[in-house]
Specification:
about 210 residues; alpha+beta
């Protein structure tokens, strides 16, 4: 019997259909690859921008951490003075949204040392010398150095400014105690400050 099937029947139209199919598949594949590449690039760009924002909005301690006691022969700290400023190139930071936490190896814990929720509290409105507990432990701003807006009572720590924060200490902040104060701004990394209260205290001393 004669073979009625022959490759001679493969016409130019069929070749065009096959070619178009290959082109369509290649175009779809290219679109998917390009789309994935654009998404990855955008994600990486967002990550970089977030990282820059975090790094450029961090705090740093300026000078020594000072421990202050309110008795002639103290056995515990009443509060600590910590001078803070923005890191180089940092942007202005609203400290009214910052969370300060405290802990020590005597069991003292305070996940949120309170301030005036309406803004930065000046130390003149807080009895910082009073005995502090987790319920009434407070922090405030005792001085603003190089204040760019004197008298404005704003909450923004700006470049070149130094703010001295006074943080009340609980009864557990006794001699030879290791204390840790964490400052968590709304944007930026946590600034951990760990010091050991010396075995002998004066009214004012640097603690290391």
């Amino acid at each position: 019997m004669r073979n009625i099937y022959s490759e001679d029947a493969f016409t130019g139209l069929e070749a065009a259909i096959v070619l178009i199919a290959f082109v369509v598949v290649a175009a779809v594949f290219s679109y998917v690859v390009l789309g994935a590449g654009f998404f990855t690039t955008q994600t990486a760009q967002a990550t970089v921008h977030t990282g820059v924002a975090q790094a450029s909005s961090s705090l740093e301690v300026v000078g020594n951490v000072m421990g202050v006691a309110n008795t002639e022969n103290p056995t515990r700290l009443t509060f600590t003075n910590i001078s803070v400023a923005l890191t180089a190139g940092g942007t202005a930071m609203d400290l009214s949204t910052m969370v300060i936490s405290y802990s020590d190896n005597n069991g003292g814990r305070n996940a949120n040392v309170l301030n005036n929720t309406g803004g930065i509290t000046d130390c003149t409105t807080i009895d910082i010398f009073a005995d502090q507990t987790d319920e009434n432990q407070r922090w405030c701003v005792s001085q603003k150095i190089n204040d760019l807006n004197p008298g404005a009572n704003n909450n923004l720590l700006e470049p070149n400014e130094i703010w001295i924060l006074s943080i009340g200490m609980p009864d557990s902040a006794t001699v030879n105690t290791k204390i840790t104060i964490n400052m968590q701004p709304s944007v930026g990394a946590v600034l951990p400050i760990t010091r050991t209260i010396p075995g002998g205290l004066n009214k004012i001393q640097a603690i290391y």
